[in-house]
Design goal:
The protein is mainly alpha-helical. The protein is globular. The relative contact order is 0.19.
């Protein structure tokens, strides 16, 4: 992994874009527990699958993967949402999130290999 000021700045810039995009999704989906988190995690899973097949440079991986996608997606909010929803609804939310997230990642890999 590139350990330089340029690498640091790429992660920072990507992180800014990812965080702002995540906030935008939260605003667009309203204040419904889990909807924004589910949306960003599925989009992020697809994008990460695509990135794995398409990123040709370490700098792209740093900017998009480590920076943008890691600040766009979230596990901690996902876990909090699952607990907030309660045992039954939270369990369904976890199962749906994993199923759809893994499917989205596989779709990203598939699409990326076709490009």
């Amino acid at each position: 992994m590139e350990q330089s000021l340029a690498g640091f700045l790429l992660v920072a810039a990507g992180g800014f874009l990812g965080a702002v995009s995540r906030y935008g999704i939260d605003l667009a989906t309203g204040d419904v527990t889990g909807v924004g988190t589910f949306t960003v995690n599925v989009i992020g899973s697809f994008a990460l699958g695509l990135l794995v097949t398409q990123a040709t440079t370490t700098r792209t991986q740093l900017f998009v993967g480590t920076g943008a996608l890691s600040s766009f997606t979230t596990y901690s909010t996902f876990a909090d949402d699952a607990v907030t929803l309660g045992t039954v609804d939270g369990g369904i939310y976890v199962l749906a999130s994993y199923a759809v997230g893994l499917t989205a990642a596989a779709a990203g890999l598939f699409v990326g290999r076709r490009l």
